[in-house]
Amino acid sequence: MTKCTLLLLIILAVFPAFSQDEVVFRALFVGDSLQKGKDVTVEKNYHYLTNSALYQFDIDGDGKVEGISFAYRDGEHWVEVYNLKKHKIFEFKFQSFGARAQVHKMKLVEVDSKNRAIVMYFFEGISKHVETTGSGRLYVLNIPDSDLTKLSVHKGVPYWIERKDHLGRYYRRNYEVGAYDIDGSGQKEIIAKSGTISYIMKYYPNKGWKNL
After folding, report:
1. Closest to 85 (Cα-Cα) out of 107, 56, 106, 108
2. How far is CA 44 from the centre of its chain?
């Protein structure tokens, strides 16, 4: 309990937001749609494939340029990683829940001297049943030992939640996301924080990322 309290105090006192090595694709304007009561419909596209641009940068820190692209395949959202020769070496499917799902930002994090990660902001979409909801979740592309042959993706914590109930009442919570070594281990944790609520993702060598 004392350790958890100490971590919370550190988070509240020092919380650096991401500022460098960040790619923003599109701002979230979903809240306006929900507040104004606009209907959201899900368009089903079959036998349909499209890719984003290939975002090229040094993924593993070897001084060479690799690439990341985001694909949409018959309603499924994927991230694809390409090597120096632009050959696809890895792919992962996100879990979406409704219309307008997309990755709208990604951030490169130097976890420690050996390990890197790319934090992807995936808006999971809008669903409309008894109430209308929208949510966003962080996914972490893990690059252990800066080795592209060991890539994996961790489904992380939420960074955006919004809801409009059948009475028209609207609720929204936006989490500030940052990376900081909060326990003095020499490795950065990824933190999503809103007010007194904090979610922490921690990296464990040989085990990967865990939601605490």
Report:
1. 56
2. 24
Both tokens assigned to 206: 């040989």
What is the reported pTM?
0.79
Question: d(Cα 168, Cα 21) in Å, to the nearest integer?
Answer: 39
Question: What total of structural domains would you count in the chain?
Answer: 1
- Angstrom distance (rounded) from CA 138 to CA 148: 20
What is the four-CA torsion angle of 139, 59, 107, 190, rounded to 10 degrees? 60
pLDDT given at position 24: 54
**How far apart (Å, rounded) are the C-alpha atoms in residues 204 and 88?**
27
Q: Which residues pair with 153 in a beta bridge?
A: 141
- Contact (Cβ atoms closer than 8 angstroms) between residue 87 and residue 74: no
Write the pLDDT tens digit of every residue in 127-175.
Answer: 888 788 999 999 999 999 999 999 999 999 999 999 998 888 999 999 9
Q: By three-state DSSP, how is residue 33 classified? A: helix
Domain limits for position 75: 2-211
Is the pLDDT reported for residue 30 higher than 50?
no
Amino acid at 55: Y
Instruction: Report the 10 Å Cβ neighbour count for 37.
Output: 10
